[in-house]
Every structure is written in C-alpha cells, then in structure tokens.
Amino acid sequence: MNPESQVRPYPTRRALLKTAATAAIAVPALAGCVTAGKDDDAPAAAGADKTAENPLGVKADAPLEVVVFKGGYGDDYAVAAETKYQQKYPQTKIDHKGLQKVGEAMQPRFVAGDPPDVVDNTGAGRLDIATLVGASQVSDLAGLLDAPSLDQPGKKVRDTLLPGVVEDGTFAGKTVALNFTYTVWGLWYSKSLFTERGWAYPKTWDEMITLCGEIKKTGVAPWTYQGKYPEYINDPLLSMAAKAGGPDLVKAVDNLQPGAWKQDGLVQAATAFAELAGRGFLMSGSEALSHTEAQAAWCQKKAAFIPCGSWLESEQKGVAPAGFDMVMGTVPARGGSDKLPVTAVQAASSESFLVPAKAKNPAGGQEYLRILFSKESATAFAKANSTLPSVTGATDGLTLTSGLGSVRDAVTAAGRDTFTYRFRTWYAPLAKAVDDATGELVNKRLSPADWANRIQKAADQVAQDSTVTKFTR
Amino acid sequence: MKHGRWRFLLGALVPALVLHVVFVLSPYAQAFWLSLTDWTGVAGEAQFVGADNYVRLGGDSLFLDAVRNNALLLLVVPLVTIALGLFLASMLRTSSSRLGQGYRIVYFFPQLLSLVVIAVLWSFVYNPNTGLLNSGLRAVGLGAMAQSWLAEPAFALVAVMVVLIWSSVGFYVVLFSAAIEGIPRELFEAALLDGAGKWATFSRVTLPLVRESVQVAFVYLGIAALDAFAVVQVMTVGPGGPDGATEVIGLSLYRTAFSYGKFGYASAMGVALFFATLTLAVLALRSGRKERLELA
Questions:
Q1: Each residue of B63-95: pLDDT tens digit?
Q2: A267 phi, psi to nearest 5 deg
C-alpha cells in the first residue's frame, strides 16, 4: 500500500498547482508542432533516362498523386488526363483527389513536407501562390515548358500556350505554375437587346457616355455592377488605364514604383468612372448587390452593361432568358493618345497547376501536365465547359455559344496586345486597398485624385514592408 | 481500496485531460508562439521576430477600424439585447400564461437557425431594390427613407448590429424568464400591495433578483460582440465594407491568415483578441461580486 495515498487521499491544492505549473511548462514544448515539418528531402523518384518518347525522364513505375480543385468545371478533364498517363505508363498507380477546399487539405501536407505530385491550386480556399513561392514550396517548370508538346509536332509546350500564360505563372524569373483556363475581362451586353433598340457598342468613352444618356432615357439603367465585390468594377477601370498608358503603366504599378498610381492614365480612368457614377448611369442599389443579384438584374434587362470576366456565360446558364445572346465587348478607349489599340484586352489565365518542390515524383507530375496541356485534352475541356482553355487553337473548328464566341474573337483581335496586372496575386493587401478605394470612388465618396493618393499610399506601404516578398516584371 | 480510488480518478481524468491539452491548450500555446514569428502557413519553419507583429498591429489602419467597430458592437449589442430581453421577459410574466408560452417559443426561433442562414436571410431583407425593408418602407409611403443599407457607411454597422440583436434576443428572453420565474410570487404580491407600479416592481424587485443572469448575459453577449465574424463575412459588402465600415477583428484575422498567408501576424491579432475577451469576462464577473441577495 502506498503510504502517501493514506495521508493524502485526494490531490491537495498545492499538488494541483504543481501539476498545472508542469503543464504550463510542457505546453510551449508542444508549441513547436506546427512548424516542426522535416526539412530532409524525400527521396524523389530517381529519374529515368530522357528519350524522345519520355522527354521528362519519368520513372515508369513511380506512383503519381494528383489533387484537383473540383469546382464549376468538375474534375472529369483531369481524370481523362490521368487515364492517358496510365495508358502511357501502365505500371504506375495513380491516386486522384477531387477537392473543393484545396488549400485547407494541402496546407498541412506542405508544412509536413509531404505534398502530392500535382496540385490544382484553385478555388476560394486556395493557398496564396506568392506565399508558396516565398516558402520555396513549388518547383520550376522550365523543363516542362521546353519539352516537346504531346500532340503538336515540332512545338515546345511553351509555344502552344496563349499569350501571357507563361508570365502568369512566373514568379521571380521562375515559372512555377501553369494555368489551364484563359479568362478575358470586358463589358457584357445582350446582342439581341442592342439590335432591337438600335444601340451600337461604343469604341470610345465619349461614345459610351452618349450611349448611356440614350439608354437612360428609355428607362433602362446603362450600367450595373457587382457592388458587394468592388473588384468587378475595378477591372474595366484598370483596363482603360492600361490601354491609355500601355505596358509601361502596368509594369510601373506591378513593380510598386513611386507615384505609379498617380500616372495620368490611371487618374483619367478613375475620372471616367467617377463621371459614370456622377451622371447616375449606374443602376441604383448596385453598390449593395452581390454578383448573382447584379447579374440577374442585368439578365432581366434592367441594365445594359455589366463588367465581368469570360466565365459570365456559364455562370448565367439558366438565368439568362432564351435569345438573350450575351456577348463581351472590349473596354472603350479613353480616347486621344492611347498606347494600346482599343482591341487590347485584359487577359489572364487561372486554374493554376503546380508541382510542389517536395513532390516524390516531380517528373511524373510534369509529364501529367504535359498530357493535360495537350491540344486534345484542352479541346475536350472547352467542349465540356464552354470555357476557353489556355492552349492556342483549342477551340478551332468548334461551334461556340454567343458568349464564348465573342471571347474567342476578342482574343484573336487582340493578338499580342493582351495585358494583365500582377499586383493582385503578388500583393493581396494592395488588391484589397484598390478594391475598397474603387468602391468608394463609384459611390461618389472619393474623388479621382484622392483615389490615386490613397492607393499610392497603400502601394508605398507594401513597397516599404520588409516582410513582403517582392516581385518585378 | 484507496489505491483503487486513485486509479479510478486517474482513469477518469487522464483521457479528458490529454484531450484538453492536445486539442485546446496546445493550439492556444502554439498561437502564442506563432504570434512571435513570421510563419506563412505553408513553410516548414518560422523565424522568430519578437514583438514585431504586435508593433505592426498599432499601425494597421484596417485593424484599427476593426477594433473601433468591435468596441461599438460591444457598447451597443449587449446593452440593447439585455434591455429588450428583460423587457420582453417581464412582459411575459405579466401576460396570460398560454399566450406568454407561445411568444416565448416564437422568440426562440432565431436561435434554431445557424448564424450563416440568418445572415443570408437578412442580406435579402436589406437588398436595396427588392428587399423586405425597403419594399416595406415604400409600401407605407416612406420611400424617401429607403437606403442601400449595407452599402452606406453610416448604416452598414447598424444593420449588422440589428441582425446580431435579433438573432440573440430570443435566447435571453428565455433565460431571463426562467430567472424571473425563480423569484417567489409573494415578493411581487407584496410589492403590489405596497402600491408599486410596473416600473417600480421591475427596477426594485425583478432586476435585483435576476442580476446574476444579467451578468452572465453580459459576458456571453460581450464575447459575441467581439466576434461577429460570421454575420459580417456573409452579409456585408467587401466583406467588411464599405471601406472598412463593418470590419471586425475576426475578419481581419481570417483575411490576414488565409488570403495574405501571414499566419504569424494573424496569430498576434488572435492573441490580442484573446486578452480583450478575457479582460471583458473578468471585469463583467468582478463588477457584480459585491452583493448577493439571499432569498428567504
């Protein structure tokens, strides 16, 4: 019998305190857990010899794990590419995961140094790509880009992609992500409504203002926008600025140059949108509508124009009435001495596929992407999802809906004149500041000059913040 | 025999204690540690940066907006909710019993809905063009008062407060009703005989005797007011807007961690919020310690 227990049948107050103190000391020791991921490199599948058939040196029997965002596009297209991979390498075992919350599921695996071989880092819960780059968690895809295309003889993978796709995935000189879909931003309108009323899509901002006056007289609001998320109205504003100032303006903004937001092109564009609000050309109440509400009002012909990316048509499936015939027009030019033609479009790729730096089968991951980005796979994707893939010519010969057709025509007309701002992905806090300021601008609570000042201040703050990884283009 | 008791005690306590340490205490401890680092959320390692994250909080204008809004919520939401709850509960006491029971159930309805559902429903109510509120105003000829409730900086936070109060008041009606029912009837009868009016009965009899329930309600509502994340995230423009008008600490924290990939800095916000909540709870419970009424 334990004599102690006779004296003290129950833990005394002191004993309890002692235990508590021990626990308090022990707990910080546990605290290391989250960041205790091992740094030792997992034994990556030793590459096989590189041949014409196997340019990336895939080890035929190494297993492959693919994680795909299963959102609006589903994951059938990714599974199809896996099937082809399996046919090419019958000995391999493929582990496929179609997830909605890719970030949540992948974060612990990145931390633990045990990521899959391919990740489609997309969707609302995706991991911040700039953060992944900063933490050296993603691998350079240069080998893949220089490998021959799977089904376009004589071309490298790099040459089969639409303009801007490689740049979109490039951080600090390294291409670490390949985006599978191609998005173009513009102004949407109903072709049938415009024909019926005899309205012509404007090429310049002056024509736009005149047309808006006419539209307003008929009782239809000229514009609506997805006010709950001010980034939607930002896109045409920044597009107009980019056309006026050309690639130099965009670069200055992305490179956080001093005074970049006070460039004439930007202030002029802000003035244009302030005018739109000032003249009452925005549908009243738009400022509080969510994207679904604003887009539904537009489909009910309560407003003539709405700014959006090229996903709009598939998003409005079932909402837009028959014969609505939505088409996308490019943002009108501010006029005068624009550096880019009016056909220039803001275009960027998304649905971003990457091969983690600590993947166990990186060659297999790249080979998988080579199959996914083949023309055959991209065409099948375009057919199934009426969305433009980022592979050149993937929609050739397909019969397209009015919206997707207008998007493809816009891309063709733009040629090399596409542009995209990178600050949104590079510096998320700056993007938030721009969204807030533009929301205030189009609600007449902020003047164009103050708009520029405010964003410039936020940009300077990011530039001076030593904890933010900086990128340049 | 005694030996067996120890074994039993340990057997009963240890599993719970281990679970508590692993799933409650250790995340807390980790958050404290992470708040002193620059952890990005995806890296396998984190650099120790000392108090940098806390220094940065003071200069983060959006975070300061959030603190201001949470402070306003803290001032308004508990007071109004408790006042309404007490009013309705004491009205229910005096009303005929069957009708009162029915009302009590109706008041409790919002409690059965998830906060996200409530926020979605209210965002429909606040819709400037087709919402119930503006349509109602227009129907009774007050169309001039119709607003873009969630997009006007002057009204957005008030709109959030209304939802928070609406969703919680029912619970406190039930809580206070139960407390009021615990008061012996004779006290009310005595007050009535002494010629006390309704207000005097409420302020001299009811309120002092349900004091402890009110205190607990303050703590709960205070914590809810320091949070408010779900309603703001789902309902407001931005979210957190327009231009920071409805930003709350929880939202700043969430965005900093999951959109900006700054888990270290976000942890610092979390730790600050933790201490704010703790202080509030201690103050609220201390303030009521002085006297305890004994019911004879």
A1: 999 999 999 999 999 999 999 999 998 888 776
A2: -65, -40
- Greater model confidence, B121 or A13: B121
Dihedral, B255, B259, B262, B268 alpha carbons, nearest 10: 10
Q: Is B194 exposed, middle or buried (0-12, 13-18, 19+ CB in 10 A)?
A: exposed
Q: What is the pLDDT of residue B182?
A: 87
Question: Above 90 in pLDDT, residue A447?
Answer: yes
Decide which of A342 and A48 is more confident. A342
From the candidates B5, B34, B38, B42, which should be mutated to test the interface with A, based on the most A CB atoms within 10 A?
B42
> Which residues are paired to A175 by β-bridges?
A170
Domains and CATH numbers, chain B: 60-259 (1.10.3720.10)
Q: What's the confidence (pLDDT) of residue A472?
A: 87
Residue A399: CB atoms within 10 Å: 8
* A287/B237 touch (CB, cutoff 8 Å), yes or no: yes
DSSP labels for B41-94?
SSSS---B-TTHHHHHHHH-HHHHHHHHHHHHHHHHHHHHHHHHHHHHHHHHHH
Instruction: Give the separation between CA A457 and CA A422, rounded to whole angstroms.
Output: 18
Say what the pLDDT of residue A32 is: 47
E-assigned strands of chain B? none
Instruction: Taking residues A165-177, report their average pLDDT.
Output: 90
What is the mean predicted confidence (pLDDT) over B207-214? 89
- Answer yes or no: do B244 and A436 touch at CB < 8 A: yes
How far is Cα of residue B296 from the mean position of the Cα atoms in its chain?
A: 34
Handedness of CA A70, A76, A81, A87 (dihedral sign): positive
Give SS3 for B267.
Answer: helix
Region of residue A282 (left: phi > 0; alpha: psi -120 to 50; beta: else): beta
The verdict on a CB contact (< 8 Å) between A1 and B241 is: no
B244 touches chain A (CB under 8 A): yes
Considering only the beta carbons, identify the residue of B42, B45, B241 that sits closest to A107: B42
Higher pLDDT, A25 or A183: A183
pLDDT tens, residue by residue, B87-134:
998 888 776 667 777 887 888 888 888 999 999 999 999 999 889 999
Residue A78 contacts residue A116 (beta carbons within 8 Å): no
- Residues A78-111 pLDDT 10s: 999 999 999 999 999 999 999 888 888 998 899 8
- Chains A, B: CB contacts within 8 A come to 145
Name the closest residue on chain A to residue B38, using Cα atoms: A467
CATH superfamily, domain A64-183+348-419, is Periplasmic binding protein-like II (3.40.190.10)
CA–CA separation, A132 and A358 (whole Å): 12
CATH superfamily, with its number, for domain A185-347+421-464: Periplasmic binding protein-like II (3.40.190.10)
Assess contact for B223 and B281: CB atoms under 8 A.
yes
Q: Are A177 and A353 in contact (CB under 8 A)?
A: yes
Task: Using the predicted structure, report yes or no on whether residue A37 has a pLDDT greater than 70.
Answer: no
Question: Cα dihedral sign for A353, A355, A360, A364?
Answer: positive
DSSP state for residue A447 in the 8-state scheme: -
What's the full length of chain B, in residues? 296
Q: Cβ distance A31 to B32 under 8 Å?
A: yes
H or E stretch including A223? Answer: strand A221-223
Task: Quote the pLDDT of residue A233.
Answer: 94
Residue A27: per-residue pLDDT:
44
| Residue ranges, CATH 3.40.190.10, chain A | 64-183+348-419, 185-347+421-464
